[in-house]
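thought: fold this chain, then report.
action: predict
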Amino acid sequence: MKNKELKILLSAPRGFCAGVERAIEIVEKSIQKYGAPVYVRHEIVHNKFVVDDLKSKGAIFVEELEEIEDKSRPVIFSAHGVPKKIPEDAKDYNMTYVDATCPLVSKVHREAENLHKAGYHLILIGHQNHPEVIGTMGQLPIGSIDLIQNEDDATKYNTKNKKISYVTQTTLSVDDTKDIIKILKNRFPDIKEPAKEDICYATTNRQMAVKNIAKECDLFFVIGSRNSSNSVRLVEVAKKSGCSNSQLIHSQSKIPFDLIENSNVIGISSGASAPEILVDNFINELKNRFTVSIDEVEIIKENVVFKVPKSLN
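observation:
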């Protein structure tokens, strides 16, 4: 019996960003051009559904180039970016490689390199062991870039370098990052900041969209993977913005129907690497049990498109 009425506030923009769309297209076009298999170093984007779909089309995912048995096959570098050493290793193996690094991550890489060349010691604000952080730190010689993960790190950070500068991971919480930067600027008044903010447009827009509706929701769900930084940040943003009962719905999640049963308004968003079909599937599950009305709340239209490398066209 579908008696319970449920209002869904659907956050927009949500889901795929231009960098993710480009990365997936690069894998698909590489398979068309080179035939299967093509190898992909690290998950192309952090989403199991996407990775499984590409596997079914002929992509083989590895963590390191050494694992690739047939070095005559092309390898694709994930959207998160790679340390400088990886393309060099691929050349040493005589491998064909296609770089699917998001252009906004590449921008941070170039920025870090230019600052290093200009004599600055760098701080990277980001999360340890995230592939994007490994890639950005891997653009520079060891010892010339330090990682700061939170306000505590920023408060304790010490350096003898006179010229310091910072860059950030592209998928951080906008508000948390502001607080870290504030501490750094108070402690190091001459610290050089990026010409343009490093947190990408998609991360910023999705967080703003969630903030916009979270306080009106009894429950908030973010569709995305546990290892997706931007998805996990969206859950945090929803909690901080007035919906304490916010959670991530990932590939192993059980939908908490008992909680939904006791709610009138639920918010839904999805991370930048989560395909819209996962949102549709989730809403369909709710429609099977409840009388659902959907209000899509869009705060900004996105029209960013990144072209794939010419070699694939």
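thought: worth noting. The first strand starts at residue 5 and ends at 12.
final: tokens above.
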